[in-house]
Design goal:
Length: 168
Amino acid sequence: MTPLPPPHGEGGFVFWRLDQRRFAESWGRGEGAFRAGGRWNPPGVRAVYGSLDPATAILEVAVHCGFAVLDTQPHVLSWARVVNAADIFVIRPAMVPNPNWLVPGAVGAGQQAFGAALLAAHRFVVVPSTVSRHSWNLVFDAGRDGAAFTVGGQEAFALDTRLHPKER
């Protein structure tokens, strides 16, 4: 479950990530984004993408691979806690130079360069999700020095089978 903030829980700033099981141990290295680039980084930057809630983390993966893959291939849901919330920089929609960067679609070089500059300047960057407009993603550069987060845990992911129904 998502940890509750104080006074109802232990608090802290938590983020979530869903990966194929074979990448469960290396999820925080940013290897995929380093090789291919991502929405907020060009190739060569070890960006790690997470979400501020597990449902958004699931949707962020499902939009790329589909619910059938999440239903039939083993995945792991990981969560971690940011050590110092002061290390987090929030990008609000009005701060983005091109509003089209916040809608689904092709990613351009300008967006990747903007994201790379943010990752160079800030340990963690929180950005609006494009798949869930009322949700947030967190991105960090795993190539930076120092451990700025602690791994909270990992668990085998099991998709609700209603999201991959049998054909009628």
